[in-house]
Amino acid sequence: MPNQKGFSKIAIIIIVLILIGVLGYMRFIKKPVSLDVGNQVQLTEKKQIETKQVIKTDTESSREALVSYFNLLNKKQYSDAVKYHGSGYDYLKNWNSGLGLKSNDYESLIKNGCEVNGLQCLKIKMILNQQKISETDFKFIVQFENNDGTLFEQINEDENQSLTKADFEYIVRKTNNQFLVITQPVYSQ
C-alpha cells in the first residue's frame, strides 16, 4: 500500500504537468481552449457577431460609393473618381470633341467636365433620402455644398419665373460587385 500512495502522487503530478503543457501549447498557438460546451457556444456566437459587423449592406456600399465619388471629384482626384463613374462618357466626349482628347482618356474627360464644361463637382452636404429601388439600383436625394460650405442651389430661369433647386436625385447601380454613380453631376451653364 505505501507504494500505491507514492504512485498516485506521481500520477497526479504527471497529469497536472500534462494539463499545464497542453493548456500552454493551446495558449501559445492561440487556439481557444474550451473545457465545456457552453464556452464553445459563446466563442462561436462572438465570431458570428464579429463577422456580421465587417459585412456592409449593399445600401451602405452604394451610399459610400456616392459620397466617395463626389468627394474625389471635388478634390480633383479624377483618376480615382473614374472607378465610381457610371453615367457613361458619350456626353463628355461630345462636349470635348474639338480638344483632341482620346476617347478612352476618362480621367481627362471627367476633369474637363468639372473644370471646363459646367459640371458641378461639389461635395455632398446631406443625404436627405435613400431607397433601394431594385436588386441593383439605389436612389438617393442629396444636397450639395459650395466650396464655402453654403448650400448649393441651382437656379433655372424660365420665361415666366426663376426656379431654385437644392435637392438632386442620384442613382447608384451595383454592377459586377462595383457600385457606380449612373447619374451625371449637376450641370450648370
What can you see in these coordinates?
It is a single chain. With 189 residues, the chain is α+β, with helices and mostly antiparallel strands. The protein has two domains: 2-54; 58-181, Roll (Nuclear Transport Factor 2, Chain: A), CATH 3.10.450. The protein is built from six helices and six strands; from the N terminus they run ααααααββββββ. It has helices spanning 2-28, 37-54, 58-74, 78-81, 90-95, 106-115; strands spanning 123-132, 137-145, 154-157, 162-165, 168-175, 178-181. The strands form two sheets. A four-stranded antiparallel sheet has the order 1-2-5-6, covered by helices on one side. A two-stranded antiparallel sheet has the order 3-4. The longest helix has 27 residues, at 2-28. The radius of gyration is 30 Å and the shape is elongated. 16% of the residues are buried.
Provide the residue-averaged pLDDT. Answer: 85
Query: In the CATH scheme, what's the topology name of the largest domain?
Result: Nuclear Transport Factor 2, Chain: A
Give the strand order of the largest sheet, numbering strands 1, 2, ... along the chain: 1-2-5-6
Sheet with most strands: 4 strands, antiparallel
The helix count comes to: 6
The coarse overall form would be elongated
**Unreliably modeled segments:** 30-37
Q: Please give the alpha-carbon distance between the first and last residues.
A: 105 Å
Number of domains: 2
